[in-house]
Each structure stands twice: as structure tokens, then as C-alpha cells.
Amino acid sequence: MKRNPMEIRLIVFVTLCMIIAISFVAMLIFNKNTASATGGIKTTVDEDTFTSQRKQMVEEQIAYRGIKDKKILDAMKSVPRHLFIPEENRFCSYYDQPVPIGFGQTISQPYIVAFMTDLLKLDEGDVVLEVGTGSGYQAAILSKLVKQVYTIEIIEGLGKASLKRLKTMGYDNIEVKIGDGYKGWTEHAPFDAIIVTAAAEHIPQPLIDQLKPGGRMVIPVGSAYTVQDLILVSKDVSSKIVKEAVIPVRFVPLLHK
Ligand code: SAH
Question: Which of 3.40.50.150, 3.20.20.140, 3.30.200.20, 3.30.565.10 is the CATH number of 67-249?
Fold first, then answer.
């Protein structure tokens, strides 16, 4: 049977469409880089590699340096740090360093996240305030260890992205607010613990006021873009304040509106 040129063109066109459709479906099935268990967030290295890098990070950077609390080690092992980092920087998610997260801000070095968390001596019934949500990673770690986390971010773009990320990933005991964390969060005060992840020139009085008697706060104190002191503030049961400089650190500055 002889086909006319119009028919031939149609057959070629339909065949090409089918090849494209089949290739597309095959790509979706075989592309391991699309992590469906992570809310559809795309990663550039496959999840198994990230999981083994994370295990190594906990062993070599955190446990090795003396963090012994199993709950903290387990939290650091389970929270997928790379999903809190922009795709172009994801390859260095598990390096022993802070990583840029946009807006001139950084996610803290893994060891510092674990060290500050350890200083707070948290209990599972605690209510914690974080100032400086950034990527939401520190909040996610805290949420594994306590009852409720309140976190404040001053940069709207970062705060909104973190709120969305934390919701997508199922962290339902974290509340994010856009605002100036210098003032704390009076509606939810007092807090069992407060963690400030940006360097303040001095310890904000509202945060001291919003700490429960018997509570602890960690905060880097010092000038912007220099080495600061990480200060552990303890409020005893009679509300007496004791401050102790623990280690030198380097944080982005706490902005104040
Ligand atoms: N904890 C974050 C990293 C913090 S970087 C994480 O896990 O990713 C410090 C963050 O503090 C930045 O996002 C910065 O925008 C925010 N910040 C600075 N000043 C602030 C303020 N006064 N109130 C709330 N957030 C502030």
C-alpha cells in the first residue's frame, strides 16, 4: 500500500512524540537525584552519599571532639543538613565549616550547632527560643530534642523560605516568626532555654527577662566580623544571672531594628 506524503509526515511526527514521552518517563523513573522522600527537593548528589557523609560528620567532627549526648548525636545524624542549604552549595553541606545560605548569611558549622545545643542541657519537655532562624537547620535539630521551638528571623526572604521548608519536611513543633529577635517573643515566654545564632554587641535585656529561673541561654557576644565570645548565661532559681565565656566563635552580626 502506498502512503501519501501527508500520512508519512503524520506517522513520523507521532513516532517522535512517543519517543520523547517514553524518554521523559524513563528519566523520571531512573533519575536517582530526585529525592521524593524529601518533599520533592532536588539534590545534586544522591541521598545515600549524603547519608554516609552525615554519619562521618557526626563521628569525625562532633563525637570525636567530645560531644557525648546520644540524643544530640542522633539528631545530627537524622536531620538532612543538605536540604537546608541552597543547591549550588550543597556539595559542602557536611564539610567542617559554615556554608552560605543567601542574603549574606550562613548556616553554622556542624560542630558549633552541636556544641551550642549541648550547652543548653535540654529536657524533652522544654520550650526553646532561637534568635536567627537562617536556614532552619538549628531549629530542626532542637525540635528533635524538646517539646516546642520558637524561632525568629529578621530577613523576610529567609524566614519565609525556612517556614516553608520546615513545614514540607514535617517539623510540626517549630513556629517561625519574621521579626527582630532582640526583643524575644513575649507571647510564648518564659523559655527553658534561649539560643542566639548571631553575634550581639551585648546580651539583649528582653532575652534575659524571658529566660525561666533555672534556664540557660547561649549567645555569641562581641563586635561584628571579629572573633566573639560564646557566652553561657544561667539564671538560677532565685533569678540571679551568671555569665561564662566558653569558647571563641565567629558569627554574622545580630541586626537590630
Ligand atoms: N541558626 C541558623 C543560622 C543563623 S545565621 C541556621 O541554622 O541556619 C544568623 C541569622 O540571624 C541570619 O539568618 C540573620 O538574618 C539572623 N538575624 C540577625 N539579626 C537578627 C535579629 N535581630 N532577629 C532575628 N534574626 C536575626
Answer: 3.40.50.150
